[in-house]
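Let us walk through a complete example step by step. Step one is to write down the protein sequence. Step two is to encode the small molecule, zinc ion, as a SMILES string so that its atoms and bonds are unambiguous. Step three, shown after the inputs, is the structure prediction itself.
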Amino acid sequence: MGMTSFFEIQCWLRKLYRRGTRFQQYVKVLADTHDLDSAGLRVYQEKLLHKMVRHCNKNVPYYRDLFRELKIRPDDIRTLQDLSKLPLIDKKTVQGNLDRFISRRHYNFLCNVGSTSGSTGTPGKFIRDFDAINFEHAVVWRQWQNAGDSGKKRISLRGDIIVPSSQNEPPFWRYNPANRELQMSSYHLSLDNSIHYIRKIQDFQPKILYCGPSMGHVLAKFFRHHGVNYRFDAVFTSSESLEPEIRDYIEAVFQTRIYDWYGQAERVAAIGQCQHHQYHIQEDYSIVELLPNRGDGTYELVGSQLHNYVMPLLRYRTQDFIYLKGDPAEFTRCACGSYFRKVEKILGRSYGYLLTPEGYHIAITAHIPVGVDNVIETQFYQEKQGEVVLKVLTNGSFSEVDRERLVLNTLKHTSPHMKVLVQEVSEIERGPNGKFINIVSNIKNSLN
Ligand SMILES: [Zn+2]
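Step three: the predicted structure of the complex.
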């Protein structure tokens, strides 16, 4: 059996696993819960919460002991307000008690172990069961369908290597027939190889681009560089924060719309963009509490799972922050039909922040080099609060004027008191799987 056919069998098996009968059932349920008003959502959430709490009390050692210690009976936690009787937990709580968060009644063979990025801090381990995985795929599928994607041909550029890194001739991709998806390597997407990618895309004629914002940006730049026009019906982005400038650029080059998605390895909260451009907290995915963050107008997302019975997390602090549109308790109807709360902006993961001398988190840096000449790539590197090293890969003609403009832009978009050092480098190191990382921070999270 050749490599390709083995890969294809894997694709079909994976699809069967992720999109089985449970998936189809969830798709139906989620079509209804999408349009529930706040009272309806509350009923839905509280029913699932109570069921989950009873399961935790019975089968999950961490919660069983916690409830005993706090003298809480499962019936004491029925409403959303009751949830506050439980303490907040975070990555440290979970990773320090990993075995005790796992249900005694789970079946290993159907579980999936995910891990959080280890770029800073400790990598975490999170386990989901078959049901939770199907549920997750159904929630994402709802966004795709609402955006007009009913299983169209797509390419994915998700920061994966796909083919051996030593390979220097195309193909830099492989076809997943189960998803009608051409998976393209992010690692090999360079200026030299870019024309091969473009020709392949023209030949394959995908309608959908599924990518991280930074890789989508790189691909769009190459299309523009080669003067090639191409139109996608929709672009789906996730995994990194999407800056307005990057969004505008990708949408302009590919004459399309971006539907952004936010999630995390812990799977305690999800935010998706609807067909009316609005970011919505997916209220039927989990229970999301919003923790005000030191008066800077942001809220930390705190999530309680309703569907993952193998390793349930209740009141889990994501250390991800958002700006809300309107009041935290405001559920008003969007043109898409949903009453889900509206999010103005999602800030990046905590390792994607710059910390200003004033203690503000700056996640938006992609537009800082805009308008500065002779810059190919930049990376913001922070060791100490209030100081930043700007690593710059230049084309060799980077001048003193360019340097000054870059410093001024940084001060303007972070803080006038930021100490900025521009450092020319011959290469910007990629993260795991060749992924481009805009901000590298070695500052311990200020919330811990
Ligand atoms: Zn909407």
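Step four is interpretation. The longest strand covers residues 316-324.
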